[in-house]
Amino acid sequence: MSKPGTPADSKKPAGAPPAEHAPKPQMAPSGGGKGSVGAKVGCHATTCKEKDTRFNFCEEHFRQFKFGLITKTGERVLDFERKLEHYQLWLKSQGIRSNVA
Prior knowledge:
Blueprint: H1 59-67, H2 80-94
């Protein structure tokens, strides 16, 4: 018989682990491993075929990422044209040559 004030279905078998220690369901691997199809090797920028050197970007696209021209997935930001002007002026002041489209 259960105690008054407690629902009868709250009883758990003695061998069941508490909810916070219950094993978590395992998920299937989502690719990205060695030999997976569609995994981009090299720079994450959308049209770049260079080898990645820093944070999955080549040197040029890493500078653009740090300046805010592209996102971490390699896509252009919404205000790309406005930021591009500032980026080109900064490159010129630093004496760096770039091939930004």
